[in-house]
Amino acid sequence: xxxxxxxxxxxxxxxxxxxxxxxxxxxxxxxxxxxxxxxxxxxxxxxxxxxxxxxxxxxxxxxxxxxxxxxxxxxxxxxxxxxxxxxxxxxxxxxxxxxxxxxxxxxxxxxxxxxxxxxxxxxxxxxxxxxxxxxxxxxxxxxxxxxxxxxxxxxxxxxxxxxxxxxxxxxxxxxxxxxxxxxxxxxxxxxxxxxxxxxxxxxxxxxxxxxxxxxxxxxxxxxxxxxxxxxxxxxxxxxxxxxxxxxxxxxxxxxxxxxxxxxxxxxxxxxxxxxxxxxxxxxxxxxxxxxxxxxxxxxxxxxxxxxxxxxxxxxxxxxxxxxxxxxxxxxxxxxxxxxxxxxxxxxxxxxxxxxxxxxxxxxxxxxxxxxxxxxxxxxxxxxxxxxxxxxxxxxxxxxxxxxxxxxxxxxxxxxxxxxxxxxxxxxxxxxxxxxxxxxxxxxxxxxxxxxxxxxxxxxxxxxxxxxxxxxxxxxxxxxxxxxxxxxxx
Length: 489
What we know:
The protein has helices spanning 3-6, 76-86, 126-129, 131-142, 175-193, 220-236, 254-263, 287-298, 322-337, 373-382; strands spanning 34-39, 42-46, 49-50, 61-66, 91-96, 147-152, 199-201, 242-250, 270-275, 303-307, 343-351, 357-360, 370-371, 390-392, 394-396, 401-407, 413-420, 426-429, 436-442, 449-451, 459-462, 466-473. By secondary structure, it is α/β, with parallel strands linked by helices. It folds into two domains: 3-55 and 390-477, Golgi alpha-mannosidase II (Immunoglobulin-like, Sandwich); 61-382, TIM Barrel, CATH 3.20.20. The strands form four sheets. An eight-stranded parallel barrel has the order 4-5-6-7-8-9-10-11, surrounded by five helices. A six-stranded antiparallel β-sheet has the order 14-16-17-22-19-20, covered by helices on one side. Strand 6 (147-152), helix 5 and strand 7 form a beta-alpha-beta unit. Helix 5 (175-193) packs across helix 6 (220-236), helix 6 crosses helix 7 and helix 9 runs parallel beside helix 10 (373-382). The longest helix is centred in the middle third of the chain and has 19 residues, at 175-193. It starts with a helix and ends in a 16-residue tail after the last strand.
């Protein structure tokens, strides 16, 4: 083989070999990834190719939100280990500027003074409203989390037409006051807890307003003026925090907010959620077209998928079930492949509703908590696809098997995630080609099991309705999968 053939800039092509009922492989040419769909002793041929020499988006990371339901002080360190070490969450989205109650739970319940250019620090209350979230951020940072996005569910009620943090619409005349509040927040986080906030999203879901909990609607033009005021305030005060957005709830509302952002020259990532009252969580068949539409609307701008949760499944996927977790695995795949998302987050890392959490706790400060099946299906991406890796094209894959592939910049590490949506097992093979591969499989009964691989061919079996992640590395010393944390309750 010539130098060009040895180069990593080539696409893996594949041919399938026959398998007899006892699992014995029959010889055949293998140039790449091989899959066999076995059904009643019959092998169905399927071809797939991975182009390791090309690249698509660079991965920012995977994660979720915290700040509504908090671990007890006793459990905080262990929960931090579970989320940021064992699971591998590398993006933390944290609630800022107040919790889920009224203005008494807000750092600026009344205007600090009549001059938005001057801080009256005695009238801000960040030490009270942000303390628990500061503990979470510091715990995440201890485990190497660097991408932290602070966002507000509502500004103070006095900035809105409703006069309340629940529902209502932001009044544009308060844009400079909002900018002052966000600048004060960033300064206070550093002053009180030595925490740097790299990203701020000024409003969670500006495209909706509900009267029953903290929300705030911003029409696109109003949103952009508030965002620009905040960016300008940061620039004047030499605050390095990036202001990002729009964090829309409905994915189909992204284009109108992007158009408003384009008009002022916004050049950051586009943050979006995957909610649609017409499409429940379990309709994963609708995800790919929605993400393709979002990708087209975004143009060259990076997409960050900031939130989704199982709250509209109509009983089809029970909250906290494996069905729900298996759907989430597919949602991650479609966001990465069809949306080319650089960041992928579930709604909540730790929450009091099993359908909306990776770790479920009945309430803030609960003595016990439970790792949901979503925790384990998330791990197939969160733990192994690390920030800075790039997704590479999977040129062809068999119908019913969702495959995504990633490598680091130096091509010393590779990751392949296969989601078998079929009712039959799939045999996948990754020829070593100088890489030492290991495989981890999650099924309804076994979570993150270390699966055996044929040393010579790299063959292993992906069971029906299972997720498998293959990790290949040229270097020694890869960290092994932690002991099963399912014992934590």
